[in-house]
TrEMBL record:
The organism of origin for this protein: Fructilactobacillus sanfranciscensis
Enzyme class: ligase
EC number(s) given by UniProt: 6.3.4.14
SUPFAM superfamilies: Glutathione synthetase ATP-binding domain-like, PreATP-grasp domain, Rudiment single hybrid motif
Domain of life: Bacteria
Protein's name in the database: biotin carboxylase
Boundaries of every Biotin carboxylation domain copy: 1-447
A GO molecular function held by the record: biotin carboxylase activity
Record Pfam families: Biotin_carb_C, Biotin_carb_N, CPSase_L_D2
Length: 456
């Protein structure tokens, strides 16, 4: 087992990782920017190294600075978390060259699955259902037009190197495709340094269902109950639930078997998440794979009864998975709400500032809070605006919603505006309660009505 692990991240995921490391009797090293000097995760770490200024490009994205900090502190391994360098194949390769274990999959697999067009082609070969569309990159506009006619409009034009909901265009007809094709290539070249595009059938009237799995170095692979992440805005998740109440045990098992087979087919090590679109007929189609831990891993931990960060560390150290498939059946229902420093009535504009006071609703069965802030913490404009994740785990969705509503109403914060009121109203929406929503429900329906009553 490792003796010392460096966390190449910040905020709540750094806090959770430090807790897991300490419970495994492993020393935790934090790297931090000058903007995070007084942050909770820095205070909790055994050792700390400042790696630059507030801009992520000057600190958390500086591979050399992170690796130098690992060498300086004699760290055995690096835990990347999510965001920043977590899906950077070059960084994973450099870790290997430095003799430091990257807690995640190999650089080769990150590279393979990080390119969405290549990932789709690979999954197709492994028997994973894929969205009708291009096999690999589009060669030119003519190919895009021909393919769009074959599969039928509307279609989605996507950046092969995109991520986080960026580099995606919905196209309704050939005239629009002609107009946006070169424009999109130019935009993504500036954002990603790569102008390759691919095209898919638009399955907007679908649910965003994802399934996480984990593989050790000895051929054992386990899948976890799926998550429904359809409540999103601008391709950014707002609230997640697990398991999806509309999916049967048989459908879950089938999806799990497909995921396990794919993990084995690409020789995957550690945890990863397969993102699918599920249509109204419950047919599911592969979208992409995230080769890292995800923000919403918490609800998976609750319903499956596992500790994923600890499992990731153990697997990276060469140990067997600490659980088997039978251990990971869905137990009850879990729900996560993301508390962000933002104003939903103003197009979710970030609201950075100093937290003058915060009270989290701890203290009852079934409520979990993952956060990296405390009274006095600063919400920086440099980073994601998430303040905390509130997770509830109860026997039923009805019980969980009631508990989450109580928790959100008890949660109190002063100094920064949050999306709490928006979440409270969404939780009481009948479409959510009935499971009658798709990927676009929040953006096209709920949000428009909500803003009418809150835009003051």
């Amino acid at each position: 087992m490792f003796k010392k692990v460096l966390i190449a991240n910040r905020g709540e995921i750094a806090v959770q990782t430090i807790r897991a490391l300490h419970e495994l009797n492993i020393k935790a090293v934090a790297v931090y920017s000058t903007a995070d000097a007084d942050s909770l995760f820095v205070k909790m770490s055994d050792e700390t190294v400042c790696i630059g200024s507030g801009q992520p490009t000057d600190s958390y994205l500086k591979m050399g600075a992170v690796l130098d900090a690992a060498a300086l502190t004699a760290s055995d391994a690096i835990f990347p978390g999510y965001g920043f360098l977590s899906e950077n194949s070059e960084f994973a390769e450099l870790c290997q060259e430095y003799g430091i274990k990257f807690i995640g999959p190999s650089a080769e697999v990150i590279n393979l699955m990080g390119n969405k067009a290549n990932a789709k082609a690979t999954m197709k070969k492994l028997g994973v259902p894929t969205i009708p569309g291009s096999d690999g990159y589009l060669k030119d506009l003519d190919q895009a037009l021909e393919l769009a006619e074959q599969i039928g409009y509307p279609v989605m034009l996507k950046a092969a190197a995109g991520g986080g909901g960026k580099g995606i265009r919905q196209v309704d007809d050939s005239n629009q495709l002609c107009k946006v094709y070169e424009e999109t290539k130019r935009e993504i070249k500036l954002s990603y340094g790569d102008d390759h595009l691919y095209l898919e059938k638009d399955l907007s009237d679908s649910k965003h269902i994802e399934m996480q799995a984990i593989a050790d170095q000895h051929g054992h692979v386990v899948y976890f109950p799926e998550r429904d992440c359809s409540l999103q805005r601008n391709h950014q998740k707002i609230m997640e639930e697990s398991p999806c109440p509309e999916i049967s045990d048989e459908e879950r098992q089938h999806m799990g078997e497909v995921v396990v087979n794919a993990m084995k087919g690409i020789n995957y090590e550690n945890t990863g998440t397969f993102e699918f679109l599920m249509d109204r007929d419950h047919q599911f189609y592969f979208m992409e794979m995230n080769t890292r831990l995800q923000v919403e891993h918490t609800i998976t931990e609750e319903v499956a009864g596992v500790e994923l960060i600890k499992a990731m560390i153990k697997v990276a150290a060469g140990e067997d998975l600490p659980f088997n498939q039978a251990d990971c059946k869905a137990k009850g229902y879990a729900l996560e709400c993301r508390i962000n420093a933002e104003d939903p009535a103003k197009v979710f504009q970030p609201t950075p500032g100093t937290i003058e006071f915060v009270h989290f609703p701890f203290g009852t069965k079934g409520v979990r809070i993952d956060s990296g802030v405390e009274t006095g913490s600063k919400i920086s404009p440099f980073y994601d605006s998430m303040i905390a994740k509130i997770i509830v785990h109860m026997p039923t969705k009805k019980d969980a919603v009631a508990k989450m509503l109580r928790a959100l109403k008890e949660f109190e914060i002063k100094g920064v505006k949050t999306n709490r009121e928006f979440l409270v109203d969404l939780l009481q929406d009948q479409h959510f309660l009935d499971g009658d929503f798709n990927n676009l429900y929040v953006e096209n329906h709920f949000l428009k009505e909500w803003v009418k009553h809150h835009d003051k």
